[in-house]
Structure formats: structure tokens, C-alpha cells
Amino acid sequence: MSLSKDHETFCSPYILKCIIHRAENLPIADFTTSDPYVQISIGSRIEGKTKVIYRNHRAPEWEEVFIIKMLQRNSILKLKIYDYDKNKDDDLMGITAIDLNEIPLDEIQRSKHFISGVGGYNCKL
Ligand SMILES: [Ca+2]
Q1: Residue 85 Cα to ligand 1 middle (Å)
Q2: How much distance in Å is there from the Cα of 53 to the middle of ligand 1?
Q3: How far does residue 7's CA lie from ligand 1's centre (Å)?
Q4: Ligand 1 centre and the CA of 90: distance in Å?
Q5: Which residues of 16-49 are buried (b: 16+ CB within 10 A; e: fewer)?
Q6: Strand order in the sheet with 2-5
Q7: Considering just the CA atoms, what is the radius of gyration of the chain in Å?
Q8: Distance from CA of residue 25 to its chain's centroid?
Q9: Which of 13, 28, 31, 48 has the smallest count of CB within 10 Å of its CB?
Q10: Residue pLDDT, tens place only, 30-80
Q11: What is the pTM of this model?
Q12: Domains recognised in the chain with CATH numbers
């Protein structure tokens, strides 16, 4: 993840580059596995979603890059992991929140985050 100032525009002065790499040991949401994807949001706005990794709750890998323009740095980035379900609503498996004030400007920060699961699970993202 990196956060930098965009000196060319006053409308969206901050650019967040967020790379979703992988997760480990997600809860089982279906009978024997899960179909996880990650939803990225800032405040109440959904900024993006990764693709669904089917039938892999142990070590799904996304390796997807999201470039998010922001008005202010004082924001909370939320990463929610859902289990995709074809014929019903997707199940929320876990959530983590990152205070972007704690991300240094113009530095690449690689970090692991523990996901608090709705069933009391903890897993890594
Ligand atoms: Ca599913």
C-alpha cells in the first residue's frame, strides 16, 4: 500500500495504491470450503472488489491493484472478505479497518492484517 499527494489536481489530492495479495485460513462458509473475494471501501463508498477465488479458503491469492483517489487523508480504509454465493446473498466472513492517517506519505508499506470474523474467527489478509 502506498499513499501519495497528487500535485496536479486539487479535486482529489491524495492517491492510494492498494494491492490485495492473499489471505490465509479463512473460515469455511460453504460445506467444505469458501469462495472468497475482498471488497474495498472508504467511508460508505465501495471503491472496488477483487475477483472471486472459487473453492479456496486456505490460501486464496488475488494480486490485484486498486488506485483510489481521495479528497482527504483522514479516512478509514475497510477491507471486507465475503464468500460468494450464486443463489443467495454473499456471506460476510471478516473485516479489517486501516486508518490512512497512519500510512506514511510516499512510502510503500507492506503489512499483514488480522481479519475479525463474524464467527469469532481470526485470519490474515
Ligand atoms: Ca460460496
Answers
A1: 4
A2: 10
A3: 43
A4: 7
A5: bebebeebeebbebeeeebbbbbbbbbeeeebeb
A6: 2-5, 14-22, 61-70
A7: 15
A8: 16
A9: 31
A10: 999 999 999 999 988 999 999 999 999 999 999 999 999 988 888 999 999
A11: 0.88
A12: 2-124 (2.60.40.150)
